[in-house]
Amino acid sequence: MVAAARVVSGVKAEGLLRGACAALAAAAALLLGLSTQTETVLLVRKKGTVKDVQALWVLAMAAASAAGYHLLQLLKCLYLGRGGGRALAWTCLLLDKACAYATFATTVAAAQACVVALDGAHALQWTKLCNIYTRFCEQVAGSLVLGMLAAVGTAVLSAASARNVFRHYYCSSHSPPAPPPETCDAH
């Protein structure tokens, strides 16, 4: 009874964390994808969008993909719970790790590109862009924070998936001995 309650609470915790990661990743993708700002620079109207910096566009697509992945895993968690065999557990572990790495890598790459926009690159004669597009830069910073929180949550989920994989091996190799089969003579 206690073991069943642990499994149910573990499934609920995983579902809650998957829902939170999906919400964070979706919020990061939406905030980043919908951010634009138009400013006049030297009598020329210039519109700053996420497509101006390729790393930001990649982050928006990766965050949207991560949100979709977490929603699919949330559905799996709700309908299957911890059910499934070793193959499903390994598949979930590998996909969770790939999602964590991709989310983290794209967020860090976008943050690095944003540092150039924030400080400029004097050797290349690139000016500071955040002085011009202040609101856009603030929205991008918010999406970077949300993306990093989603990456950390995905890393925690990856650890839970690893625990689930090793639980399959531990339970099968340390299960109590099976009772002897009953025969007709025993009755």
Quick take:
It is found in: Cell membrane. Homodimer and heterodimers. The chain has 187 residues and is mainly alpha-helical.
What does this 3D model show about the protein?
With 187 residues, this protein is mainly alpha-helical. The chain has one domain. It has 4 helices and 2 strands. A two-stranded antiparallel ribbon has the order 1-2. Strand 1 and strand 2 form a beta hairpin. The radius of gyration is 24 Å and the shape is elongated. It starts with a helix and ends in a 14-residue tail after the last helix. The C terminus is likely disordered. Keywords: Cell membrane, Membrane, Transmembrane, Transmembrane helix. This is CASP-like protein 2C1. It is found in: Cell membrane. Belongs to the Casparian strip membrane proteins (CASP) family. It is a multi-pass membrane protein.
